């Protein structure tokens, strides 16, 4: 079955085009790679059965934007919005500002082409790269370039939405994003993966590469919000120059397969990472977050906080790694992962890692797995709150701290009712938090 999956995906590889060298290298690497299984350490808790047995060896046959406007809209955000439906740009759903300021690789001018050639596929490197990154290279025919020039500070956020709709046959979407933030610039990016409400039959393989120049700052939101049958494997690779700041928030609602890898490289002193995330799978969904922060040089800091709530028979995986290289003296790095299991059949596998090769550092990491506290439930019930409503309120309170900390209130207000609905499927139970 693995060989059949590889053959189907390679049939979608690009044979000739502007990225021929990258396509060929990706094809060769993917063809030689072994599909991960339970014996593969980085994938041991994440089954790829739905993907390898699903026959996702086609592209979408239609790209209708009908009925998707509300799904693509984040109220009150006021963003420049670029929307793709089943992998194809939808000018109908995109804003004029985004169409003018965000560039497709295929429409790049000579200066932008030089920038793409210089940066593309340079941030993904070493052991943090896996076979689906290579598959993305093999299938790359076009992508999105977001370039913020030196000292620029756009007032509006840039929202890039990748939406899917049901097709006659299972299909693959290859999504590629290259973000270059020049020295002293400051920007907000919302990377949104969604779908129509109907049962989906898509596999999205998404790779985002982000390069932050000296003293640049990026606020990055990555939101996985597709219908539960959509499959998603994503990777975010970030390079930080001197004094750069990368702030990010990651949301995983869950699906049959949702896997996200986040790798951040501290390449020069003074850079800082602030990373937080929430995952809330339910039913029989799976969410897998693998993060790695590479402290390669001295005087860099990072703070990472992820929280998960698993309901029904859902499963989550969190693997957070902080790698302190020998030259990374005076590093300050912290990581926290807290998990809440709402049922006895829910499951989480959490593995915080510290790998330290420098002796003058301050590092801390921790993980917890718990259920709702009986005393808190009893207290709320004694105040006239039903048990079911108390469970919803306590569950939401477990993650609301991270939502409250988001710098963009429009994003928090957009996500709050979405998350409330996950806990209170009877909306009367979530009336205090929606």
Automatic annotation (TrEMBL):
It comes from the Bacteria. Residues 168-398 form the SUF system FeS cluster assembly SufBD core domain. Residues 24-160 form the SUF system FeS cluster assembly SufBD N-terminal domain. SUPFAM superfamilies: Stabilizer of iron transporter SufD. Belongs to the iron-sulfur cluster assembly SufBD family. This is Fe-S cluster assembly protein SufD. It comes from Bacterioplanoides pacificum. The gene is sufD.
